[in-house]
Amino acid sequence: MTKRIFLMLFLSLAMCGIAVANPVDDAAAAGEKSLTVRSFQFKHKEADKAAALIKALVSAEGSVSLQPGTNSLVVTDKAENLRAIADLLKQYDTPPQPLFLSVRLVSATRVDAAQAKGIPAELKDVSVNLSMFGFNSFEILGIANVEGREGEPGSIELESGYRADFKFGEYDPASRTVRLTDFRVSKKQKDQLTQLWKTTLNLKVGQTVIYGTAKDPQSQRMMIVVMGAKK
Questions:
Q1: In angstroms, rounded to a whole number, what is the distance separating the alpha carbons of residues 171 and 177?
Q2: Are both 71 and 183 inside the same structural domain?
Q3: pLDDT tens-digit profile of 197-208?
Q4: In DSSP terms, which residues pair with 65 in a beta bridge?
Q5: Which domain does 43 fall in, by range?
Q6: Residue 92 and residue 49: Cα distance in Å, rounded?
Q7: Are residues 156 and 175 in the same domain?
């Protein structure tokens, strides 16, 4: 939170033993310190989540009051802070936004150099990152792209019997991230779906992230998920 420190210099004019204050300067100083109250009602998002979003913008003198019955916030703060808060909440309180998720499921192994497959062409954009895992052979298990909206569940059927399930969270305009809740990778085996991996994560829009999971640090095999989110 940014705090502004105002250094004020008072000039007293001694005239016949009487101190004369400048009324214009006093009014300006009072204006800087005055607080304004403003109410924000939300049509699409939850007020408690909006309160958390603006927490960093509220000054030490300000306050936020949650009104669950009307799904609204009452914010008391300086006028300049309220303007910034209003701008952020306007961006936040929008209908569920369309989101796009790309998923590449990869099997990575350590094998003899003669048997190594290297990195497939479909992964060349992240080849430097993949090499950091210490494996020398990579195989694509599935590639898929899916479109959804904030708050909606999603499911991706991948090749070789693999499947990814998840739920899109809300898009955070301040950090430009979207939360994926209960992202699960499963595989169909003998007509049963066996869960292999589960996590909850935040994806920054426009960036590619890579997650790897293995049974232990010395494992010769690892499953890697390459993901990216877009709006």
A1: 6
A2: no
A3: 899 999 999 999
A4: 74
A5: 34-92
A6: 10
A7: yes
Q: How far, in Å, CA of 98 to CA of 43, rounded?
A: 17
Q: Give how many domains the chain has, as a whole number.
A: 2
Residues 104 and 202 in one domain: yes
Q: Same domain for 108 and 159?
A: yes
For the chain, the maximum distance between any two Cα atoms, rounded to a whole number of angstroms, is 101
User: In 42-124, which residue ranges form alpha helices assigned H by DSSP?
Assistant: 47-54, 79-92
Which residues, 6+ apart, have CB-to-CB distance to 67 below 8 Å?
A: 39, 47, 73, 74
Burial of 147 per CB tally in 10 Å (0-12, 13-18, 19+): exposed
Q: Does residue 22 fall inside a structural domain?
A: no
Dist CA 78 CA 49 (whole Å): 22
pLDDT of residue 33: 64
Q: Are 179 and 169 in contact (CB under 8 A)?
A: yes
Any residues with CB less than 8 A from the CB of 218 and at least 6 apart, and which?
none
List, for residues 21-51, the tens digit of each pLDDT value. 344 444 444 545 689 999 999 999 899 989 9
Q: Which residues of the chain have pLDDT under 70?
A: 1-33
From residue 182, alpha-carbon distances to 51, 64, 85 in Å are 24, 31, 31
Residues 6+ apart with CB under 8 A from 155: 146, 163, 164, 165, 166
